[in-house]
Specification:
Elements: H1 6-11, H2 26-34, E1 39-45, E2 48-53, E3 55-60, E4 65-70, E5 84-86, E6 93-95, E7 101-103, H3 108-134, H4 142-163, H5 167-187, H6 200-217, H7 220-227, H8 234-283, H9 285-329, H10 335-346
Helix pairs in contact: 2-8, 3-5, 4-5, 4-9, 5-9, 6-8, 6-9, 8-9
Length: 347
């Protein structure tokens, strides 16, 4: 989210080029800031956008041609490149002739993801190097101590309680989810950053990974309970099977929507609060200046809240992933085995 660039950007109308600016459109401004784009826009200066162009990679399926160029060649929607056209804000690319193409471009969200991955690699490779050099018996310091605390927390409070004795098999996945989501949530709160985890395509991809791991890790007990719930009459059995199959697909959908909705909502709320300054200013300049301190106070409060939400949503996604995987790898518990364990504990 581009909070550092909101004030100058919001003061400008987001009307298409060549049209008179008639006022401030809060909805288009907010949605424009949370959407993905083919450039990294920071602010407008004297009606000229200040942005960093990104690589555009397009494959025309009908012609069999691959076009690679920088998004600056679109000149913010004023120029056409090899038959491709972009809108004024570089949110979408189309072809006037209607030919189908595949888009492999490095968009703002993709670049943000690559930055997040680079940060993760830097942190964990640096920590691994420290452990290799000093050994595991030396007390950790600084970032090493903080990361170790987070790793132990995920192991003891998320993986072990929800997955059981097979938890180590899934620790790399859970740690990757937790740090990947948390780091990208935090990056999204920096001035000029992208709304990466507030993009439903991103959360859908993460949820799909959870779904695939859950299915391929499932044991016979899970599939037997899914397609043949024990101890129920045949008529109810069929109904329960249908419900269980539906719930199987609801799990990744819930993961996808929960993360997407919470992150996107936080960005929209902050942008909406700041937009109120300009809405009041259109009615009366004094009202705009008068509401500015109130808006900034609420914005700071929301920013502090979003810092907490960034960590909480990473934890919730990771915890629910562990719960779903734990259900798929859980072994059958027979009454006689439980009785035997109780008897052993008695003795």
């Amino acid at each position: 989210m581009t909070l550092g660039s909101i004030a100058p950007a919001l003061a400008e109308s987001h009307a298409e080029a060549g049209h008179e600016e008639t006022g401030f459109d809060a909805s288009s401004t907010i949605l424009g800031h949370v959407q993905d784009a083919y450039d990294w826009h920071f602010f407008d200066w004297d009606n000229h956008p200040v942005s960093v162009p990104l690589p555009v990679i397009l494959y025309n399926k009908e012609q069999g041609t691959l076009d690679i160029f920088m998004s600056s060649r679109f000149e913010h929607g004023h120029a056409e490149v090899n038959g491709y056209q972009a809108d004024h804000h570089l949110h979408t690319i189309t072809r006037a002739d209607g030919q189908a193409f595949l888009d492999f471009s490095i968009t703002k969200n993709v670049m943000s993801m690559l930055i997040g991955v680079a940060l993760m690699l830097w942190m964990f490779l640096a920590i691994a190097k420290k452990y290799t050099r000093s050994g595991a018996h030396v007390a950790p310091k600084g970032m090493q101590n903080f990361l170790e605390m987070c790793i132990v927390f995920i192991r003891d409070e998320v993986a072990k309680p929800n997955i059981g004795h097979k938890y180590m098999r899934f620790m790399p996945l859970l740690l990757t989810f937790f740090f990947f989501i948390w780091i990208n949530n935090m990056l999204g709160l920096l001035p000029g950053a992208a709304n990466f985890t507030g993009n439903i395509a991103v959360t859908a991809a993460l949820a799909l990974v959870t779904f695939i791991v859950m299915l391929f890790s499932a044991n016979k007990h899970f599939w037997g309970h899914l397609f043949n719930p024990p101890g129920v009459p045949m008529g109810i059995n069929i109904l329960l099977t249908i419900i269980e199959i539906i719930s199987l697909f609801i799990k990744p959908i819930a993961l996808m929507i929960r993360l997407f909705a919470n992150i996107l909502a936080g960005h929209i709320i902050i942008l909406s609060i700041i937009s109120m300054i300009f809405i009041f200013a259109l009615m009366n300049e004094v009202a705009g200046w008068g509401f500015a301190p109130v808006s900034l106070a609420f914005t700071l409060f929301m920013y502090a809240l979003e810092l907490l939400v960034a960590a909480i949503q990473a934890f919730i996604f990771t915890n629910l992933t562990a719960v779903f995987i734990g259900q798929s790898v859980d072994e059958a518990h027979h009454p006689d085995e439980a009785h035997g364990f109780e008897g052993a504990a008695h003795h």
